[in-house]
Amino acid sequence: MATVEQFPGRLAAASNASEAAYRAPPLNLEAEQALLGAILVNNDAFDRVSDFLKAEHFVEEIHRRIYEIAGSLIRAGKLASPITLKTFLGEHDLGGVSVPQYLARLAAEATTIINAGDYGRAIHDLALRRELIHIGEDVVNVAYDAPVDSSPREQIEEAERRLYQIAEGGRYDGGFQRFPDALKLAVDMAAKAYERDSHLSGLATGLAELDRLMGGLQPSDLVILAGRPGMGKTALATNIAFAIAKAYRGETRADGTRRTVDGGIVGFFSLEMSAEQLATRIIAEQSGVASNKIRRGDITESDFHRVAEAVREMQSIPFYIDQSGGISIAQLTARARRLKRQRGLDLLVVDYIQLLSGTKTRPDNRVQELTEITTGLKALAKELNVPILALSQLSRQVEQRDDKRPQLSDLRESGSIEQDADVVLFVYREEYYLENKKPREGTDEFRDWQIKITDAHGKAEVIIGKQRHGPTGTVELQFEAALTRFGNLAREEATPEIR
Q1: Is 263 inside a domain boundary?
Q2: Which of 2, 127, 401, 408 pairs as cysteine with 57 (C-beta 3.0–4.6 A)?
Q3: What is the 3-state secondary structure (H, E, C) of the chain?
Q4: pLDDT greater than 70 at residue 256
Q5: CB neighbours of 453 closer than 8 A, spacing ≥ 6?
Q6: What CATH code is carried by the domain that includes residue 88?
Q7: 259 pLDDT higher than 80
Q8: Total domain count for the chain?
Q9: pLDDT confidence of residue 472
Q10: Higher model confidence: residue 125 or residue 431?
């Protein structure tokens, strides 16, 4: 087997710790050589490591080139051997050993294919350790010499992003899943639904007809809630989120970890409203005292007691608010992961996605930026295995139609919103538009308008425009504007129209 001494310069210095004034990064050249030799002797060895091991995981440049070229040949259905590889490698300084000689030595001293997976995992793990060292060095260097416009919080979030990036890219347990394992997961989901008071597979929104159509908010789903300004998007999202947090019931497992039995722990990114404004809305909804009265202090003693009682009951509810404005999708992802790790997380709400910024694209390319944001939210929902309820604005073209009920084509700025979403919900209130079209009193138009607005008063519609796992349709809800509260419509005929 070729040894470390055959590589001059940096490797020789790294292999002799007594001569170095610093610690050498972790590496194992023998494992790299053994794996490459196994691949050159039996190309089937490549299939055992190719799904997780990349060329950049090797320390030596010549090893990277050998692995990369061998992989290209094998994927093309060709033989990768010392003879077929040597024409692609060119000349390298290998301490007096030519490239053909080195390839022949790797093949001659190769170990069995059975060990290929073990060697591949060893190389992979050492590469991750070196990357961790690089991240640690960068954290130290930036902390010592930080740019003027960089805050410590931004540095922490960047370090978290890089750490999670290598954590997600560092898995070698992927691939096909046995069908019995998938069946077990499906049965476990059904068992958990049976344990919940709602008997739903997902998180109950508290809105009976909506839950009946959707089965609750499902883990790993990206749910888009869209509407024009004034329709009550934030109010509906807040109602749903708080209902889930209020229903939270957990238990401690034998290993000391917590498990959610009912309801859920909620994280709410309020990018538009402050935490105080959001809290005031929730207090109004729970106490029955109008939010504008609470804000002005225009309340009676009875109102005050109702507010105080509502606040007392809400003290222990697992509802967490992040009111930071103008954050990027990378920052949101880092903070959501942190909340999941520190407190737990069962539902994430984002109000709203047009206020997020991307990280990869130019600021003037908003379509690509929205694509990055929605793709990132869907990936985050799958990673954390929680539903993400993300609010979205609708384009102005809704206002140009006689029937102003939203459609999928009205989603603003990017078709990726519709593409990445598992569920798209629209909130619509006919009453809002009728109030703005009041005709002159005493006319026939006024009498018709009175009939229409009386019928529409206190009602809202949630339109399920898309649902991967169930039907589309329309659900009618009750809406109390003073309390910004949605509820189940109290009449028997309010059954959803299913399409």
Answers
A1: yes
A2: 127
A3: CCCHHHCCCHHHHHHCHHHCCCCCCCCCHHHHHHHHHHHHHCCHHHHCCCCCCCHHHCCCHHHHHHHHHHHHHHHCCCCCCHHHHHHHHCCCCCCCCCHHHHHHHHHHCCCCHHHHHHHHHHHHHHHHHHHHHHHHHHHHHHHHCCCCCCCHHHHHHHHHHHHHHHHHHCCCCCCCCCHHHHHHHHHHHHHHHHHCCCCCCCECCCCHHHHHHHCCECCCCEEEEEECCCCCHHHHHHHHHHHHHHCCEEEECCCCCEEEEECCCEEEEECCCCHHHHHHHHHHHHHCCCHHHHHHCCCCHHHHHHHHHHHHHHCCCCEEEECCCCCEHHHHHHHHHHHHHHCCCCEEEEECHHHCECCCCCCCCHHHHHHHHHHHHHHHHHHHCCCEEEEEEECHHHHHCCCCCCCHHHECCCCHHHHHCCEEEEEECHHHHHHCCCCCCCCHHHHHHHHHHHHHCCEEEEEEEEECCCCCEEEEEEEEHHHCEEEECCCCCCCCEEC
A4: no
A5: 431, 434, 435
A6: 1.10.860.10
A7: no
A8: 2
A9: 84
A10: 125
pLDDT, the chain, mean: 78
Say yes or no to pLDDT of 293 above 50.
Answer: yes
Name the packing angle between helices 329-342 and 152-169 (round to 10°): 80
385 and 219 in contact (C-beta within 8 Å)?
Answer: yes
Across 138-147, 287-296, 375-384, least confident range: 287-296
Domain boundary residue among 149, 169, 189? 169
Return the exposure string of 429-452: e unless at least 16 CB atoms fall within 10 Å of the residue's CB, then b: bbbbbbeeeeeeeeeeeeeebeee
Mean pLDDT throughout 83-90?
83
Examine residue 322 and state whether it is found in any structural domain, yes or no. Answer: yes
β-strands 473-480, 485-488 pairing: antiparallel
- What's the CA gap between 332 and 372, in Å, rounded? 13
Residues 161 and 212 in one domain: no
Span 6-19, pLDDT tens digits: 444 444 444 444 44
Which residues form the domain of 205? 181-498
In this structure, which amino acid lies at residue 325?
A: G
Higher per-residue pLDDT: 417 or 133: 133
Answer whether residue 292 shows pLDDT above 80.
no
Judge whether 125 lies within some domain.
yes
Q: Which residue has the tokens 């170990």?
A: 111
Tell whether omega for the bond before 352 is within 30 degrees of 0, i.e. cis: yes
Instruction: Name the amino acid, one letter, at 488.
Output: N
Q: Is 408 a member of any domain?
A: yes
Q: What is the pLDDT of residues 366-390, one digit of tens each?
A: 777 788 888 888 888 888 889 999 9
CB 240 within 8 A of CB 407: no
Please state the rounded mean pLDDT for residues 158-179. Answer: 66
Given its phi and psi angles, is residue 91 left (phi above 0), alpha (psi -120 to 50 degrees) or beta? Answer: beta
